[in-house]
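Step 1: inspect the first sequence and its tokens.
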Amino acid sequence: MLKWRMWVMLTAAFCFFLTGCGKTAVFHFPFALSDVTGITVYHNAASGKTEKKAVTKKEDIDSLYSLFEGLTLSEKPVQTGAGTGMTAFRFCLADGTDYELIYCPIAVKSGRLNIPSEETDYFTSADIGASWAHLDYEAIAAEESELPNICAES
């Protein structure tokens, strides 16, 4: 009986260990904060209506950059299509190029962070979607042609 209990406990511990062992990564931008001239933030709610805000104030650019820089991400499988909506960030750089990050929520305060330039998806428990509500800029309708690739199935 004791051996059976010990075997069950070891098996349970091993399973717990395996499920918690997703690789982690720390996100770093491939450019400096000083290279960012502006950020366009897109938000698509469950209604399907997509709006954008043009972020131009230095303190808001700094805040959004800081939201991602050093963010801990997990390389664990994430069920696609589980959440609704999307918040995407297009960082406009001084050299005329753009860098995009796309956040798709899965549950409250967690979701997928897609990095199109790296063709990768990560899981994050950061509340990235809430940043839309904290940006005090006019929200205007976004044209479909300007939208990032919104949370494509991977």
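Step 2: inspect the second sequence and its tokens, then contrast the two.
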Amino acid sequence: MELGLPTELAPWGDVNTLETNNFVELTGTLGGRPRLSHVSRAETYFVFPLEIRRLSGAVDTLNIMARRELLEQLEPEPAPKITVRGELRSFNNKTGSGSRLVITVFARTISFNDAPDTNHVALRGVICKQPNLRRTPMGREICDLMLAISRRYGRSDYLPCISWGQNAVKAGDWPVGATAELTGRVQSRAYIKQEDSGAVEKTAFEVSVVTQGVV
């Protein structure tokens, strides 16, 4: 599928600059054409869905944010997959519509290819909320973490993460303010929220942790 944008604008430079404390690499199938997201400081941003299949067969659908110039410099190829490299971003939605914490993948590079589906994230940040250790109905330990990762211009991204099993037990003892390093995958998870209008299906985005440690 071609991205379907006009091509009259000049390319955006420095697309190879990737964050060292927040790195995401995804390979999957384009789930739809880019749609306008917003304009900020004379930059136009688009968002599009990327579908990544897990080994189990389940599919994570993640929202990719990209500058218009990056999309326009992309050369469409007859390949079934695209690879996105960039970082995980958060946005606090104050409109009262949709999820309060909006998670997207900010694209630094995009390329067409025929590689297998890939979902990898590596993060280094500060534990900014008391870890919540709990158990699933099946008795498996799970720990909810909130990681704050600094980026340029004094901003930070607040990223929900989940550890499992023995990782969860260890993460449950981490103090607020500790610096943690995590690797894993970005997942989408459907859930039901009860609102005044009734039950509403929503989607949560989080990092499912594979390896972890405090430094």
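Step 3: confirm your contrast with the notes below.
Residues 34 and 183 are 28 Å apart (CA to CA). The first strand starts at residue 22 and ends at 30.
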